[in-house]
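name: query_chain
kind: protein
chains: 1
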Amino acid sequence: MIRGDKLSFNKDPNVGLYCFANDKFCLIGSPVESKTEERLKNVLQVPIHHVHLCGTELVGVFVVGNNNKIFVPDIILPMEEKRLKELGIEFEKVKTRLTALGNNILMNDKAAIINPEYEMSVDLGINATRTHLAGLDIIGSSAAMNNKGLLVNRNASEKDIETLKKTFNLPVMQGTINGGNPFVHSGLIVNKHGFIVGDETTGSEILKLHEIFGGEQ
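structure:
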């Protein structure tokens, strides 16, 4: 069974706003206690790197990426760019008015779904589809995935689900986080090894996460 844990960052259960994780590393913007960081590392099984982006702790809002590269808005500060280079993380800056990349793009190593209103200065290097999810253009905030499955906003339509399945070639499940929040990205950090959820997430919500991210359908 895939690992899972419930955490808050400084009493905030919206852990997904502060982190980006893939199968190689985790970037965290919020300062956390050492025991919290140890639990994060134990579940995700990757190095944890502390960074700020765009002068904020909201790494999960501003970063999107996969196991090959991350994308950041071009408004990141020079010291933040220097930090990423020091960590040896491959990144590309994106010039766009919609700087919250994590809220507007959903991607893995093979494909992406993008906010239909997005104008981007770079090629993501993978097949990209422009569409809405659950009637919303903030695609990235409405879903999260690893290499086994994808969790999407409970209000996603059957058409949305079919689009996700076809695009990413993964099982898809509707769900919520933190006791009913449909914007699942806000309270979730996930990679192939495990997932971290906000500590307001219920037992039934966690069972769904084990099912979809552990490939146990």
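note: The chain has a mean pLDDT of 94.
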